[in-house]
Amino acid sequence: MSETARNRLMLAIALIMAAIYLFPLYWMYVTSLKSGSEMFANPPSFWPSSAQWQTFAFVWESRNMSRYLWNSTVIAFGSVALIAVLGTGCAYVLARYRNVWVDVGLFLILMLQVLPASLMVTPIFVGFTQVGLLDYPRLAVILAIAAKSMPFFMVLVRATFMAVPMELEEAALVDGNSRVGAFFNIVLPLARNGILVSAILIFMQAFGEFVYSKSMIQDVSLQPASVGLNSFMGPNTSEWNNIMAYATMYVTPILAIFVLLQRRIVSGLTSGALK
Amino acid sequence: MRRIFASVRDGRGFDIVLVGVPFAFLFALAGLPLIYNILMSFQEVDMFSLGSFIRPFVGIDNYVALFKQPETWPILTNTLIFVVGSIGGQFLIGFGLALFFWTNFPGASWLRGLFLVSWVMPGLVVGAIWNWILSGDFGVLNFFLRESGLITANIFWRSDPSFSLWAVVIANVWLGTSFNMILLSVGLSDIPGDLYEAADMDGANAWQRFWTITLPMMRSTIGAIIALGLIFTLQQFDLFAAITDGGPNNSSNVAQYWAWDLSFRQYDFGRGATISVIMTVFVMFAAAVYVRSTRHEVRG
User: What does the record say about its membrane topology (chain A) (predicted)?
Assistant: First the structure.
């Protein structure tokens, strides 16, 4: 078999496998466009006979999605800002030196990274109640997410800083820059892309965060979209087209960002997670 | 004072501030809760004593009472099944896909990256989609299984106690496979190509090459990925909330969901903390394995 024929065959198989793997996603989009009766047709239809676009507007209005998505955005931006401000510098120091203290620090970070949110939420909730932080529930969730995701961010960004040659920073110091100056003028700009990709990854995680928000935000008007989706899905719901429309509006922005930045995100992820 | 300021601007102090502040933050919001959790597991904590620092000390009563509860062992067994089933499925499918994409045809790396959408989606959305796919009467999975002749009657994935846990396992395998695949691909691409050329010359077939080169060379990667899988599987919460809610009758309940349920639905924070402590020990153990298998890389 010639090289091109082989490549075409492999590509075709790969496309089929991707189609099978991504079928759940396709099913979400198709279901969101079906009418109430078509949704329960047997055998199921794999293409909506008449696309019900008005479902989106209906769900957007009736479920108050703009408020939910706004809250998700506030929480995600708050967490990312806090994580980036605190985590970047720490990752830089952990990348710059190599001694036993750095090893200890990395070990602690890796240990913190693995703590499940659903287990940590009990002590955090009780502690936050006692210090009165639950009066500002979104801030409380931001703090909790920051503590949960910062280790992961540090690991990813540290890998980026490792790739910045030390000589550049040393040259800047010789030229009379202070440490602060060299950090902000030389090192940070060089690591900008890696930091940005890691921040986007953290943003996507925080945008979909559920455990902390569900446990700490009682006020409906402050809840994010994940909690809204959860309360939309009652035990015996039959509005699957509406729920899928909700899910579509929630997840499509994230998917768009991911597909656009896919190469960078994947390489950023792989450089950090195993190293 | 000025010396401290100068050191922060241009000396050792700069490093100390950069590391000190985040670590203080992490200690306050992750270290302290961890310690507090252990403390609470020895106390009686309910809605009324929630706000006070002085609570009745009950020793190991929480632990004893917990293991006397009839649902404890079934839930721990479920956790084990969930972990083994999820990791097994994710790893095997992920490894298969990684090996396939490793053959490197045009478009391979882009398509491979596309799989990762399952991993970046909010867990609640993944859960909602699978909830609908797994639905009993109208679920599309039952339709496929019927058409292919694998089943004759619909399986009620979410409400049948013998299938409810597997419903979540299926969704979790889907969610995690892509992440496994990406990391395994990295491991595969790090294997030096000349090993295969040498094996080729010695006349080894594909099967022999896989067992004598690929698997041994991948050992530390595989160790790290299994440990990571354990960590991620024990963190899985959203799928339970979105698909079965731990039911029916705890048949799909696992420890991490139960801990939350005890605290936030039954308001027995002491007992919720007790399970959390037990599970945290397990997770820490997995993390130690993970760090061990990636240690040479951590030191870079």
Answer: Multi-pass membrane protein
Hey, what CATH topology would domain B72-298 get? MetI-like fold (1.10.3720)
B10·A243 Cβ contact <8 A: no
- In this prediction the pTM is 0.90
Q: Does A87 touch chain B (CB under 8 A)?
A: yes
Q: How far is A161 from chain B (nearest CA, A)?
A: 12
CB spacing of A211 vs B105 below 8 angstroms:
no
DSSP string, A122-139: HHHHHHHHHHTGGGSHHH
CA distance B50 to B28: 19
Find, among B231, B215, B294, the residue nearest to A274 by Cα: B294
Domain with CATH 1.10.3720.10 in chain A: 65-273
Judge contact between B148 and B139, C-beta under 8 A: no
SS3 state at B250: coil
Residue spans per domain, chain B: 72-298
Q: How far apart are CA B224 and CA A160, in angstroms?
A: 21
Burial class of residue B255, CB neighbours in 10 A (0-12, 13-18, 19+):
buried
Res B131: pLDDT: 92
User: Pick from B108, B114, B259: which is nearest to A262 by CB?
Assistant: B114
Contact check, Cβ <8 Å, A119/B280: yes
Cα A231 to the center of its chain, rounded Å: 21
pLDDT in tens, B124-145: 999 999 999 998 888 899 999 9
CB nearest to B291's CB, from A31, A110, A244: A110
For the beta carbon of residue A71, count every other beta carbon within 10 angstroms.
Answer: 24
Query: How far is it, in rounded angstroms, from Cα B183 to Cα A208?
Result: 23
Distance from CA of B115 to the nearest CA of A (A): 7
- By CB atoms closer than 10 A (0-12, 13-18, 19+), residue A260 is exposed
Distance CA B27, CA A167 (A): 33
The CATH number of A65-273 is: 1.10.3720.10
Please, what is the end-to-end C-alpha distance for chain B in angstroms?
A: 37
- Residues A33-65 have pLDDT tens digits of 998 888 888 788 888 888 889 989 999 998 889
Q: What part of B 30-69 touches A (C-beta under 8 Å)?
A: 30-34, 36-37, 40, 45, 50-51, 53
Q: How many CB atoms lie within 10 A of CB A163?
A: 11
What is the C-alpha to C-alpha distance for residues B24 and A44, in angstroms, rounded to an integer?
55
How far apart are the two ends of chain A, measured CA to CA in Å?
Answer: 39
Q: What is the ipTM of this complex?
A: 0.90
- Residue A199 Cα, gap to closest chain B Cα (Å): 13
- pLDDT for the residue A77: 96
- Dihedral over Cα of B46, B52, B58, B63: its sign: positive
Cis amide bond preceding A151, omega within 30: no
Residues of B in contact with A132 (CB under 8 A): none
